[in-house]
Amino acid sequence: MPEFRCPISLDLMRDLIVRPTGITYDRASIETWLLAAGARTMTTSTCPVTKGDLCGDDLVPNHALRRVIQAWYIANCCRGVERIPTPRVPVMPTQAGDVLPEVEAVERAGDVARCDVAAREVRNPKYEVNGQRSDGQIRSETV
């Protein structure tokens, strides 16, 4: 399906990211594009489709299209197409900052059990972005 192909790599998208303009890319492809342009965070690059400004911070997961592609994969699995895994939502710096004071407090207190819990939270946070938890579970919605 051509609609499911990344405009950069032309491969079927697996971890979809959308720009504010509505253009969707595969995360690996657009991150490679941004890194090549030196624009991973605040500096801008040129969008490969619209030729407008592109900033690494204005990319968000496209959960709706990912679900459509996953449904297509499931419907076509008997034809040798494998289902794509649900990608992990990256932790935003502000979210990591929410956990850091707790980690520092338990470290100062020397509480080994709480240190283990805090370390697990840092490794596997369950923050929500657009109703989807970073562990792939969807809140109040059936897929």
Automatic annotation (TrEMBL):
The pathway where this protein functions is: Protein modification; protein ubiquitination
Which SMART domains does this chain map to?
A: Ubox
Keyword set, alphabetical order: Transferase, Ubl conjugation pathway
State the InterPro entries in the record. Answer: PUB22/23/24-like (IPR045185), Ubox_domain (IPR003613), Znf_RING/FYVE/PHD (IPR013083)
Cite the SUPFAM superfamilies for this sequence.
Answer: RING/U-box
Does this UniProt record's set of keywords contain Transferase? Answer: yes
Q: Which PROSITE patterns match?
A: U_BOX
Report the GO molecular function annotations. Answer: ubiquitin protein ligase activity
Question: What's the superkingdom here?
Answer: Eukaryota
- Gene3D superfamilies per record: Zinc/RING finger domain, C3HC4 (zinc finger)
Protein name (record): U-box domain-containing protein
